[in-house]
Amino acid sequence: MADLWIKPRPTSDYALVFGLLKFIIEEGLYDKDFVNKWTVGFDRLREHVTTFTLDDVEKVTWIPRQQIEQLARWYSELVPSIVQMGMGSFGQGARSFQGQRLLDILQAVVSPLNLPGWGISATRPNYTRASRMYLLDKFPRNVETNLANKHKYAVRAAYIPDQALINGILDDKIKAALFTQCDPLMSAPNSRKTYDAFMKLDLLVSANIFMVPTAAMADIVLPVATTNECDTIACFTGTGPLRAIPKIVEPPGEARSDVMILNDLGKRLGLGEYFFDSDVETMNYVLGPSGLTWEDMKVKRMLAGTFDKKIEDRGYFTTGSGKAEIYSEQAMETYGCSPMPLWEEVIPRWEPSKEYPLLMTSYMDEEFHLTKYKHVKSMRKRKTYPLVRLNPEIAKSIGAVDGDWVWVESNMGRIMQKLAIDPEMDSRIIMCNFGWYFPEDPSNADQWDKANINILIPDEPVERASGGADTRGYPCRVYKVEPSEVGLPPYV
After folding, report:
1. Domain 13-117+316-346 fold
2. Which of 22, 30, 306, 334 has the fewest CB atoms found within 10 Å of its own CB?
3. Which conformational region is residue 340 in: left (phi greater than 0), alpha (psi within -120 to 50 degrees), or beta?
4. Could you report the per-residue pLDDT of 231-280, keeping only the tens digit for each?
5. What angle do CA 408, 414, 417 make, to 5 degrees?
6. Residue 145 has what pLDDT?
7. Closest residue by Cα to residue 445 from 254, 197, 186
């Protein structure tokens, strides 16, 4: 349905935005009144975009210069216009923090005032935030010993990036780990390093619904109650409304909610005064600031925030200057990043070579959710094996046809997936299937390393602010698997 289909090289999205900014600024297509009144640092940005050309942008992104110019002109002239961000490069990766800033800058220079819905301030519903559960007021953390102390945004957000956790284990800073409702052996980059770290732990505990690979190598596996087997509250985006998910049936066997697993663990560690005796008691604590009880919430079903239109006299931005800070000393001081996104920071880090001439990206299945549910037969009937998507030219060059098993290899290792020929794929790219293992073969932790794309991807370099690592655009090659190499039992 699109009037223009832009196909950037994996991890070059940020460079594309820089190209759009360059064209808009140099062609005078930006909103001069808004930029002069409501931005800080525009002159620095205007000077910086002279350090590269649109030909450079074309070379980096693989997008024809004419398309870049067309997109920039349409975006700036066909108002109201909007950019909708997904969870690809701008939500993940080693440049996502500055990449998100670039998108914000793009919207600022074209003037968001042209959007009827712009300037809406969202106030989240009133409830106890997850950050209160960290008990930071009772047990302050030492930033110097924080595993994420090199990444200021991660420290402020109270999370540990994958590679910081794995490095902490390998450096003997962590001896035991509990993972609830996740499968880091499959989801974290550099999976063999993750495996080595988990094997080094004195104790590995996994709380999960299924015996996923991380659970399969754990010392203790705790069965977890799933949806409607316990009373719980969900906030699916972290900023959206709360939704009540009441208990309908009893959980099977010894399964319990992960909330109660953590409550009881806290009590056994001598911290009982900070934890709760039931799921309902926990939910009542979370709902406390709203004035609702869990019984009220089950009737109400959803607790939403409010939306208010910002008034210009009060200012549109909550920065120190009260303006959109294209150049921000606060960003540098608070998050440790450059005060303004820079061209040299956002261009792709990896280039194809003679040995590894293709670039790998990935996709998630519609049939599953992330790494979950490979155990569920009804879902596996819809998709039995992982599929790597290749251009017909690549398939022909390796003598493979639809349905053949093929090796995908990088300098980190190799995996196998089944071939799906896709004429829409660029002949320089392959698209691997994320999150695959094989519960039908429980040996080697469900054959965790046979089709797992994170075998192929390093966990460095990482972004300075968030600690995020790139999981796309890594050089690789592809070739046929010999029938004797497959080594999987037939799926029944």
Report:
1. Dimethylsulfoxide Reductase; domain 2 (3.40.228)
2. 306
3. beta
4. 999 886 656 789 999 999 999 999 999 999 999 999 999 999 999 999 99
5. 45
6. 85
7. 186
Residue 214 has pLDDT above 90, yes or no: yes
* pLDDT for the residue 239: 64
Lowest-pLDDT choice from 71-75, 161-165, 261-265, 465-469: 465-469
Whether this model's pTM surpasses 0.85: yes
Q: What is the pLDDT of residues 149-189, one digit of tens each?
A: 888 888 877 788 899 999 999 999 999 999 998 999 999 99
Sequence ranges of the domains in the chain: 13-117+316-346, 130-303, 358-485
Give kind and range of the element (H or E) at residue 289.
Answer: none
The number of helix segments (H) and strand segments (E) in the chain equals 19, 16
Q: Is the peptide bond before 357 cis (omega within 30 degrees of 0)?
A: no
Q: Domain 130-303 maps to which CATH number in 3.40.50.720, 1.25.40.10, 2.60.40.10, 3.40.50.740? A: 3.40.50.740
CATH of domain 358-485: 2.40.40.20
Q: Do 108 and 82 touch, CB atoms closer than 8 A?
A: no
| CB contact at 8 A, 417 and 408 | yes
For residue 355, give the DSSP letter: S
**C-beta atoms surrounding 278 within 10 Å:** 15
Which amino acid is present at 140? Answer: P
**How many angstroms separate the CA atoms of 19 and 9, rounded?**
14
User: Residue 200 is encoded by which pair of tokens?
Assistant: 């080094």
